[in-house]
Amino acid sequence: MTDTDTAPDTQKWIRRILIGLLVLGAVLYSSWMLEWVLPTGLDPSRAYVSELAALDQPYGFLFRTGDLLTGIVLATAAGFGLALRPRRLLTTIGWIGMAVFAVSTFLDSRMPLACSAHGSSECAGREEAGLLHAVRSLHAVTSSAAATAAAVSVFAFILAAYRYGLPRPLRWFGLGVVALYSIGTVWTLFAVDMDGRGDEVWLLGYAQRLQLISVTAWIVFAALLTAQEGRRGST
Q1: Are 74 and 25 a contacting pair, CB within 8 Å?
Q2: Are 116 and 123 in contact (CB under 8 A)?
């Protein structure tokens, strides 16, 4: 048996492993939803999701571990994605975006907030006094990098779905992910600005959680796209 004969089987196994990693990554990234069953003490309408992983929170280690494992799994998935053949420009951009997202999420888990400003008046006071500026600045950089990389990746994948003629239901699902991510991001940015002015009526926590749900949908979309391309390649 020649290398040419074994290449299709190798690509098939790469694709299967990749799909499994993406599904696992989507589950791990959704670990913040455990706040619905755990007594975190934080108001989900006001608090950032990252506050769940703060060092002063009772379940902080659990949520930090979720982000840590998400970063590792999705970085591995991106590596497998880049190993797929044939190599295409748009999907390559998508996998690179996912790799940057994964690394940023991993770093997020290693640079958690010191405390929850929405859960502790003492923490809020320290933040207002500028005592937590360095920690929050580092966390903001990694979070912003993750959000930007996710945006680049999701747009690259949806363009790939159209450019490479993938089925209409998959394209519509991708458009839904883009719409959800865009709404969540705009709402979050506006709510963050208003929250900084003391106006909490814009439900910052729910805005960010909508954004995170759309990120999970993006990971699922990448898995569906990978599976569909595998079916096309086998026909």
Answers
A1: yes
A2: yes
